[in-house]
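Table S2 (continued). Query chain:
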Amino acid sequence: MTGPQLTAERRARDLDRLAGETVDVLVIGGGVTGCGVALDAASRGLSVALVERADLAHGTSRWSSKLVHGGMRYLATGDVGLALDSARERGVLMTTTAPHLVRPLPMVMPLGRDIGRREAVLVDAGQRVAGGLRRVAHTSRATLPAPRRLGAPETIRLLPAVRRDGLRGGLLNWDGQLEDDARLVVAIARTAASYGARIVTCAGVLSADGAGALVRDERTGATLRVSARAVVNATGAWADQLAPQTRLRPSKGVHIVLPAVRLGHPAAALTVPVPGQSNRYVFALPHGDGIVHVGLTDDPLDGPLPDVPRVHEHEIGFLLDTLSRGLEVPLDRADVVGSFAGVRPLLAGVQGRTADLSRRHAVVRGDDGMWTVLGGKLTTYRRMAQDAVDHLTDRPCWTTRLPLVGTVGPARPAPARLSRRYGAEAADVAALAERDPRLLEPVAPGVPVLGVELVWGVCAEGALTAADLLERRTRLSLVDAWHDASRPAAAAAMAGVSV
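Corresponding output:
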């Protein structure tokens, strides 16, 4: 293996060393923001430790819509600055940071009976302004084509299940789509490790201030004091547990998973307006492995936040009913093969729908000296990290030019699925099957994941449990049947890999 390896052995070694030293930056939280801060700081030459209570991408960062978007919806609310920031960061991700994980996705809004001509004109105008932001952000048409109007035949070709009655055509625009949000987080963490950052999962923070944190090893129960010259709280929607002065208004987003065959294997994302609500839509987003993610709901969450919010039947029903408005044959509950829910760390604002709250971020310093990163969204994680680290050092940031592991490397033959998910490291992943060719076979009948992916998760990506493999390294848990069928293989991978 040529890339940085996160293993159980490395974790234990890094945790032991943290007890006797003072690092420049201690990052609390192993989501996309925390890992982004760790990478930014380490790449500037600072000594860095990241501690995460559970696993990388355990919280919000694995429950997104898997979109890297230019912020077109923010144009509708007049937030041109946020839309431009999103467009710029999307371009960085698609061309430099992780082009192997982010691809152009055509998104189509069918023009049927429920879309009046005035609304169509407004959406078309918004798409064209978004296209202008793409140009301002210096993202070429080779990366993201320009928006355009479609005729009915082309709309049906891209969306075979679309409702034909009254179909006048469609509006096409392009955005970025992640292969896997959790995979992006793991890649950021491993890249940070390549610059010397100590990435320690299963390490919960009991208390923290600007000079360090009291950390508990969740595997052994032992505690230690980690000293730091600066501390960054990057725990997202849970930030107020360490910084009670923070003001967030978390919201819950629910997605359901459908077999792609049920929608005729769409070649584009289907956009359906939510009846009676402006600037709110349900999307059906085609992904690899023959599935479609449908989302999303947006409802406020009050009270203590769960690690993993529950998906309720009325939320599934809302998504099915709304999407069915745009389909020739309506969906029913039996079509759903999986579901997931996550929490968005929205900045508190005026009363109203959480869907209307800003996705801007803020970096604030508490009375105890600890810095906290608030708000934001996955697309702008790099800028959030830059803004946080700018408060800690005068050394220049260069993450706009820094590719993640898997982005750069020699082109070597590997199975297409591995190339899609691991980029330049695909051949290294495939090489794990040299001693056991069966590892290049699916881990269970009807499951797309290969055995080498589970082994790679343990020996290179820091998986410490079978749940880490199923829920975050491979995302098998997104489809209930895949998750159940793959449990034995995940357990075998954990037991059979020497670390």
